[in-house]
Amino acid sequence: GSVEQRALMQRAKAAGVELEVGAFTPLLSQFQFEGRAEELAATVSEMETRGLEQDKYVRRVLERPTEVVARMRTSKLARLLEKDSLAEAWALFDQLLGSGQAKSNQVSVMLAHACKGSVEQRALMQRAKAAGVELEVGAFTPLLSQFQFEGRAEELAAT
Fold it and tell me: Who contacts 128 (Cβ-Cβ below 8 Å, separation ≥6)?
């Protein structure tokens, strides 16, 4: 993640390595992916202070459409959950939720693959709503399926 990348860059700098613009591109991309807008902006400012001009790769990262970034995040969550990296998936999701970058599709993936039962699903939906996530109709499908599986017809009808 970005923490490890930043630490590596600091070690290189401390060792006297002069960092060029290409060293910043993966870090910028990771900040963007993690929803760390402030760190991304600070790194761009740091590059400008060092006299490093944005190349086409940096511009490509900075100009990446938000929909593309959202799809990348959703895919990453799904891959983490497929390989049973539940803690890592929750860490990424919580980072996105905390930074206001979580989207309905990501909530849906976590509901379907990271929650054990309708109680956890309901709690996650409440957290997402409280964080300002606009839940689309499809986000309710995992919860409705779980209610049906658990034989909770009254809650299924109420939702």
Answer: 97, 102, 107, 135, 139
